[in-house]
Each structure stands twice: as structure tokens, then as C-alpha cells.
From TrEMBL:
Sequence intervals crossing the membrane: 109-134, 146-168, 259-279, 286-310, 495-516
Keyword Lyase tagged: no
Assigned keywords, A-Z: Membrane, Signal, Transmembrane, Transmembrane helix
Keyword Membrane: yes
Organism for this UniProt entry: Cuscuta epithymum
Record protein name field: Uncharacterized protein
Signal peptide: 1-22
Annotated GO CC locations: plasma membrane; plasmodesma
PANTHER family: PROTEIN TWEETY HOMOLOG, TRANSMEMBRANE PROTEIN DDB_G0292058
InterPro entries: DDB_G0292058-like
Length: 532
């Protein structure tokens, strides 16, 4: 039986795993110093195996078990909570040292933002003090300084505009890629829900399906009821939680998108307005814009550090999903976070579907052997004048112990049974007795077909249940996300923080030349007025 909690973990994790660990940050370096490693959490590495894509993994055997460190290459980072030693436990959002190590890598841009805010603030204060205390001010005009300041101001303003375009383009594409990834995961969840509902429906149909008033044993029907309850609970939880998680994640992403759009618009407006004011506006307004820009640049740099973390946590998670999917036999931290399905519960569901399939075949073959193929004397309760060649038995793909078995040569399989049995149907009169050669009445034939649909349907969903049991379904989904969705998520999240850094840097430089050019313009005006 598929327990509701593991079933929720299976699909809801794919909705939130890319973003949940962003709370803890990620590496600012796309290529770390370490060699790709696979080992135990203690960080002891024993031999490596090279991968064709340049990554390598190292695996350590501990007793009888082996453990794989996920995304070891990317997560080999300094951990401030461990005396700045390198963290070697790999991708693990439940490990506080992983969280500290990735959070610490966001420090560079945050420190730059702090230095800018404090340093430029002190500079503004110093300039103001000098302005107030110095009684004599030089009004010397330099034509070359005037032209160069205007030239650099124009260049940096254009560069800030380009940075805004990069930011906006990356932001929109990142938002669309995120939404596409979530839509894919929801569709996978919907596919799983649909198949589980179909399994439940087939099991319900099996309870009321019989041939010649022979039905499944009562104990089998009771087991079906238990499985139905568990499946329905899993379906409701999986569908509800998956959609809820998608909604919550999109809400956060939309909020971040709106904030960044506002920041980008303000910075762009600030750069353009500052350019025009420094060229032709009052000097006092330029200084007001300088103060506004001072604050906005600090905020933009902080947002840049956050998006660096988001970009790298996306890459960490994508690498972790890929390595987990490619190493199904090795234990990883993902196995602790997302047990694909409760093994005992899933095995019971799979066993129950096999049991129902077997029992339904038993019902059909019982009617074939004891009624249709029996040469009953006229007047017997089960006689309807059946005659002619014997009807072949239906093949059961399982033994009574639910082990797979091969069909005998004289048995028919689920796929062709209706077509084969159709040749044995006789024509009946008003009393439902055969008037032509044949061993199956149309009514009996239809009942047997109904039983085949039930048993064949359950057999058809066997591989699906097996995939849920051994994580094949989830691994396939992770592979698709890694191959088709991760590249865009990684690329466009990088565009966002690059755009933010560009805007911050060039608006910062623009501010300096606002002041310089505004002063040169003021000196030029004074020189003209004071001239002969």
C-alpha cells in the first residue's frame, strides 16, 4: 500500500527541492578547488572513478553499505561553523554545515555592499564637512576634464542600460523556466495520480466482476478495500500537496520577480535621470540623486548576492539529482529525504494487484474447464448444449505465490484472448441454449471478456507500480529535469545576478561622474560669467 506521506515526498520534493535549499545559500564559484568526490559524510575519500563529463565520484564502503556524496565537486566549500575547514558532506539540505558553507559563499557580494554603503556614506560625510569648513573653493575650469567626464558618464549610462536589459531578459526567462519546470512536475504528479486512480478503479471493478456467478474470494475483496483506502489517501495527498507547493513556489518567485523588476526600473530611471541632471540640471538635484543611488546600489548588491546563491543552489541540486538518478544502488542523502515509496506498503499494493490478477484468471479457467469444456448430459444444470473444439485456458502471468511464469503453448494471453474465444461462441435461442456448434454462449463470452479486462488491466499497471517501488519513475523524472530544465534554470539565474552586478557597478561609476561632470559644468558656467 502506498503510504500517503512517502507518496507526497516523492513528487512534492521535485517541486521544492530546487528552491528550498536556497535558504541556506550556495557556492559563488562555479568551479571549486576540489576534485569531484564520493564518500562518506566524514569526508574520508578512498579511490575515485572518473566520469566522462569531467566529474568524478568516490565511493566509500562502510561495513556492508556504501554511500554516495551528492554534488561533492560543487559543495566542497569552506564552512564558517567548522573553523573554516572545507565542508565535505555533499549536497544535504538537512545538514547544518552544508547550510553554513553555502551561506558563507554569499559573503563576498554582501561584504562589497556593506563596504560600499559604509565607505561611500563616510565619503559623502567627508565631502559635506569639507564643503562646510573650507571657505575657499576653486572654480578652475578644465575643458578636457569636462569632455572626459561627459564621455565616461555617457559610456557608464549606456552600460547601465545594457545591464538592465540583461537583468530583465534573464529574469523573464528564469521565471518562464521555473514555471515550465513546475508545470512538468505537476504533470508528472498528475500522471501518477491518474494511474493510481485507474488501479483503484480496476480493483473496484474486480470485486463485482464474476463469470457465471463465480466471484473473487471474500478475503481478496477485503484486501482490495484496504488497498483502495490507501491509494485514495495517497492520491488526495499527492494531488493537493503538489499543486499547493507549486502555488507557494510561484508566489515566492513572482514576488522576487516583481521586486527585481522594480529595482531594475528604479536603477535604470536613476541612471538616465542622473545623466540628464548632471548635463543640464541643478547641481543640488544631482546630490539628492547621489544619496538615493547610494542606497539603491547597496540594496542591488545584496540582491545580487542572494541570486548568486540561488543560481548555485540550482546547479547543486541539478547535479545532485543527476548523480542520484545514475546511482540507483548506492545510498545517498536523497534516500533519507525522499523515500520513494514505503517499501512495505508498495510491495503490498503490487502483491495485491498480482493476487487479484491470478484469482481472476482462476475464476475464468474454472468456468472454462468445469462448464464450457465439460460434455454435460442434456438437462444438467450447467448444460446449454455446448459442443465442438475445447476452449483454451487463459494464461496467468503469475503463480499462486505471485512469481512470474511463462504461458503454456495451449493458453491464450490477455491481449488475444477475446479474439481467440470469439471462435468458440455459439448461436443461442430464446432459452439461452446453443443451437449451433460452440462452447460459449454470448453472455458467458462477455463475462469472460470482462474478467480479462480486469486482470489484464491490473497486469498492465504492474510495471508502473514496480517503478514506484524502486524509484525508477522518480529517477526518470529527475533525469528529464536535469537534461531539459536545469540548463535554462542555471543559465538564466546567472543572467539575473550578472545583470544586477552590472547595474550596480555602472550606476556606481555613473554616480562618481555625475558629481564630477556637474562640478565641471558649474565651473565652466562660472568661468564664462567671470570671463572678459
Amino acid at each position: 500500500m502506498l503510504s500517503s506521506k512517502p507518496a507526497f515526498h516523492t513528487l512534492s520534493f521535485m517541486l521544492c527541492t530546487i528552491f528550498v535549499s536556497a535558504l541556506s545559500g550556495a557556492s559563488i564559484n562555479d568551479h571549486n578547488e576540489s576534485t569531484s568526490i564520493q564518500g562518506v559524510a566524514e569526508g574520508r575519500y578512498n579511490g575515485g572513478v572518473s566520469w566522462g563529463n569531467g566529474r568524478s565520484i568516490r565511493q566509500v564502503n562502510s561495513g556492508r553499505s556504501s554511500s554516495l556524496i551528492l554534488a561533492a565537486d560543487r559543495t566542497h566549500r569552506k564552512d564558517p561553523s567548522d573553523s573554516f575547514n572545507y565542508y565535505t558532506g555533499g549536497w544535504n539540505i538537512s545538514n547544518e554545515h552544508y547550510m553554513y558553507s553555502v551561506a558563507f559563499t554569499g559573503a563576498p557580494l554582501f561584504i562589497i555592499a556593506t563596504v560600499w554603503f559604509v565607505g561611500f556614506g563616510l565619503t559623502l560625510l567627508l565631502i559635506w564637512l569639507c564643503y562646510c569648513c573650507c571657505k575657499r573653493r576653486s572654480n578652475a575650469y578644465s575643458p578636457s576634464a569636462y569632455i572626459l567626464s561627459l564621455l565616461f558618464l555617457s559610456i557608464f549610462t549606456i552600460a547601465a542600460i545594457i545591464g538592465s536589459v540583461v537583468l530583465y531578459t534573464g529574469l523573464e526567462n528564469f521565471h518562464n523556466s521555473t514555471k515550465g519546470t513546475l508545470d512538468f512536475v505537476v504533470s508528472q504528479a498528475g500522471s501518477t495520480v491518474g494511474k493510481l486512480i485507474n488501479v483503484s478503479d480496476v480493483l473496484d471493478t474486480a470485486k463485482i466482476t464474476g463469470v457465471a456467478q463465480i466471484f473473487l474470494p471474500e478475503d481478496v475483496k477485503k484486501n482490495i478495500d484496504k488497498v483502495d483506502d490507501t491509494i485514495n489517501s495517497s492520491v488526495n495527498t499527492l494531488d493537493t500537496e503538489t499543486r499547493k507547493n507549486k502555488k507557494d513556489i510561484l508566489h515566492v518567485i513572482d514576488l522576487v520577480r516583481q521586486i527585481l523588476i522594480i529595482i531594475a526600473a528604479l536603477m535604470l530611471f536613476l541612471a538616465v535621470l542622473g545623466f540628464f541632471l548632471s548635463v543640464s540640471g541643478p547641481e543640488s538635484l544631482v546630490y539628492i540623486l547621489v544619496i538615493i543611488g547610494w542606497i539603491l546600489i547597496a540594496a542591488t548588491l545584496i540582491l545580487s548576492s542572494v541570486f548568486v546563491l540561488l543560481h548555485n543552489v540550482v546547479e547543486d541540486t541539478c547535479v545532485a539529482m543527476d548523480e542520484w538518478a545514475k546511482n540507483p544502488k548506492v545510498h545517498t542523502t536523497l534516500d533519507d529525504i525522499i523515500p520513494c515509496v514505503d517499501p512495505k506498503a508498495a510491495q503490498e499494493t503490487l502483491s495485491q494487484s498480482k493476487e487479484v490478477t491470478f484469482e481472476m484468471v482462476v475464476v475464468v479457467n474454472r468456468i472454462i474447464n468445469n462448464v464450457a469444456n465439460a460434455n454435460m448430459p442434456t438437462g444438467a444444470p450447467t448444460s446449454y448444449n455446448q459442443s465442438g473444439p475445447l476452449v483454451p485456458n487463459l494464461c496467468s502471468p503469475f503463480n499462486s505465490n505471485n512469481k512470474d511464469k511463462k504461458c503454456a503453448e495451449d493458453e491464450v494471453e490477455f491481449g488475444n484472448a477475446p479474439e481467440v474465444w470469439k471462435k468458440y461462441v455459439c448461436t443461442v435461442g430464446a432459452d439461452n441454449v446453443c443451437t449451433t456448434v460452440g462452447r460459449l454462449t454470448p453472455d458467458l463470452y462477455n463475462q469472460m471478456n470482462g474478467a480479462v479486462k480486469v486482470s489484464g488491466g491490473l497486469y498492465q499497471y504492474g510495471p508502473f507500480l514496480t517503478d514506484l517501488l524502486d524509484c525508477t519513475f522518480l529517477r526518470s523524472t529527475f533525469n528529464t529535469i536535469h537534461d531539459h530544465h536545469c540548463p535554462d534554470l542555471e543559465l538564466f539565474s546567472k543572467w539575473v545576478y550578472i545583470g544586477l552586478v552590472l547595474i550596480s557597478a555602472f550606476v556606481c561609476l555613473s554616480i562618481i561622474f555625475w558629481v564630477l561632470h556637474s562640478r565641471e559644468r558649474s565651473h565652466r558656467k562660472y568661468t564664462k560669467l567671470a570671463g572678459p
